[in-house]
Amino acid sequence: MIRKLVLDVLKPHDPDLAEFAKKLSEEKGIAGVNVSLYEIDREVENVKVTIKGKMDAKKIEEKIEELGGSVHSIDEASAGKKLVEEAETTYEREGKSEWAK
Amino acid sequence: MLEKFIELGAIGRRYFVLNSFDGVLTTLGIVMGLFISRVENPLVPLSTGIGALIALGISGFSSAYLAERAEREKGLKDLEGKMLKKMDGTYHEKKIKKLSFKISVVNGLSPFLTGLICILPFAAALLELIPMSLAYPLSIAISLGVLSFLGYFLGTVSKERKIISALKMLIVGIATAVILYLLGGI
Q: N or C: which end of chain A has fewer CB within 10 A?
C-alpha cells in the first residue's frame, strides 16, 4: 500500500487548484492532499501534487486523468507499514556545508 | 479561453433574456394581428400562440444545444492540443454535456413560458372569466409588462439604472405594437 506520493502533473486551469485538491481528497483512503503550482501557461499549468494516506497509485493516476490532468512523473513514493520520509545522505550534508561556506 | 467552459450564469442569463424577448414579441405580433382582424374567438389566439411558442421552444432548445456543443467541443479540442492527450470521459467532457443541456433548456423554456404568460388572458376569456374586448388589451399590457421586467432584469445584471433599462425594453415593445397596428391599417 502506498503511503505517500509526490507527482508532477500537467493540468488545465479548470478545475482550479482548490477544486482539484478537493476532488482528489475524495478518493478512498486519502488522508490529505496538497496541490501547489509551480509553472503556469495560458491554458495549462504544472502542479506538484503531494498525497498522504493509504492509496493505490493506479487509482490516483486514473482520478487525475479523469480530472483532465496527466501525470508527467512520480517524483516521490513511500510504501509500507510506516511512512518513511526521505533521508539526507552524507554527500548531501557535505554539499550543504560547502555551500554554507 | 477556458472561461468559455464555465459559468452557466452569464450565458444562461443572456439566453434567457434573448429568447424571452423573442417569445414575448412573437405573441405580441400574433395578438396584434388577430386584434386588427377582429377575431372574437379566444381559441384562435390561444392555439396560434401556443403553436408558435412550442415551435420557438423546440427551435430554441435544439439550436442552442447544437451551437453550444459545437462551440464547446472546439474549446475541448483546443485543450486536447495543449494537453497533448484525448479528453474523452474526463471532467471537462462531462461538464460540456451537462452545461450544453442546461443552457438549451433555458433557451427552449424561456420563450415558451414568457410567451405563455402573455396569452393567459385568452384562456381567461375562453373560460368566460373576462370578455374578449378586455383580453386583447390585457394581453398587450402583460406583454409590455414582461418586456419591462426583462429590461429591469438586464439592468440588475449590468448594474445600470434599472428603470432606464426597463423603459428601453418597453419602448421596443410599444414600437412593435404601433408598427403592427399601422401595417394592419394599411
A: C
